[in-house]
Amino acid sequence: MPSGPSTPPVPTIHEAERESGPSGAVLRGPLIEMAAAVARRKAGQDVVVCGSDVDANRRLAYQIEATVGPATRPQFPHTSAGPMSLPHLHQRNRSPDGHTFYEADKRKTKKKP
Question: Which phi and psi angles does 58 have, rounded to 5°?
Answer without folding.
Answer: -65, -45
